[in-house]
Amino acid sequence: MSTLASTAPVRRPSPRLAVLRTETRLLLREPGTLFWVLGFPPLLLVILGSIPSFRQVNADLGVRMIDVYVPVLVLVAQIVTGLQAMPPIITGYRERGILRRMSATPVRPSALLTAQMGLNGAAGLVSALLCLTIGRLAFDVHLPDQLAGYVLALLLTAAAALALGALVSALAPTARLATAIGMVVFFPSLFSAGLWVPVQSMPHVLREIVVLLPFGAASRALDQAAAGHWPDWSHLGVLAAWTVVLSAAAARWFRWE
Fold first, then answer.
1. Ramachandran category for residue 140: left, alpha or beta (phi over 0 → left; psi -120 to 50 → alpha)
2. Burial per residue of 169-191, b for 16 or more beta-carbon CB atoms within 10 angstroms, e otherwise
3. Which residue would you say has higher pLDDT here, 4 or 119?
4. b/e code 235-245 from CB counts within 10 Å (16+ = b)
5. Distance in angstroms (rounded) separating the CA atoms of residues 151 and 77
6. Where's the ABC transmembrane type-2 domain (predicted)?
7. Of 15, 25, 250, 257, which cross-links 167 as Cys (Cβ 3.0–4.6 Å)?
8. What are the C-alpha distances in Å from 183 to residues 5, 72, 83, 247?
9. Does residue 201 register a pLDDT over 50?
């Protein structure tokens, strides 16, 4: 006598979720990338905070330099993520034909792009949180008084950095060239964010030019929110406009193979 056994259908994760899990595992196996994204900005904050003059009130600014540099290093985390971490990975996938092969499977290449942008965006935000936490616990830097405005400015900054990284990924045919282009854009981005000279300390004409750039506008927006003011809508508008323009350009020139 035979019996018929009924088997329940096996649920498999969606292709997008499977790609996200795979990319997460691959990212966790890259200690170099994790250091530059998660470790470098907090480490630089500790180094700067260890300088005695940075813990004293600056006569021109009326605040301590370490208070000024916490928002700057929050920006550095987003810039490193967008320009140094993401483009070489995506262009490397294209260079090795992975994106082309994925286009012939149920897993669409867009799932890979979404996973990469999501993971890198999350890593940049975690790095920003580490900077804020270290600043508060180690150097008594006040947390942002206008939290909602700070979060909004930070999210727009992360989106602009990822959009810029996506454009670099679209234009660079190889991973090596993506790294080179990213470095060319990297240092001007750090300057506009105020790493060498805080934006509020720049000469008036230079400051007016810098705040028209995404990370210059982000620096002013984060400073205003940290001081308890709602970020100026002009700065938020500059961030949003750059995000839209860079995203549209990346979509226009991106190639799967």
1. left
2. bbbbeebebbbebbeebbeebbb
3. 119
4. bbebbbebbee
5. 15
6. 32-257
7. 250
8. 61, 18, 7, 20
9. yes
Q: What are phi and psi of 121, to 5 degrees?
A: -65, -45
Q: What is the DSSP letter of 27?
A: H
**CA-based nearest residue to 13, from 106, 89, 100:** 106
Question: What is the average pLDDT score of the chain?
Answer: 87
Q: Which residue, chain included where needed, has tokens 């900077």?
A: 131
Strand partners, 57: 64
State the residue for tokens 């727009």.
Answer: 156
In the block, tokens 């999501």 appear at 118
Cα–Cα distance measured from residue 25 to residue 29, given in angstroms and rounded to the nearest whole number: 6
Residue 165 makes CB contacts below 8 A (sequence gap 6+) with 81, 82, 83, 85, 86, 87, 120, 182
CB-CB contact of 132 with 74 (8 Å)? yes
What is the model's pLDDT at position 1?
46
Q: 218 with 132: CB under 8 angstroms?
A: no
**Tokens standing for residue 47:** 């180094």
Residue 61 · residue 71 · CB < 8 Å: no
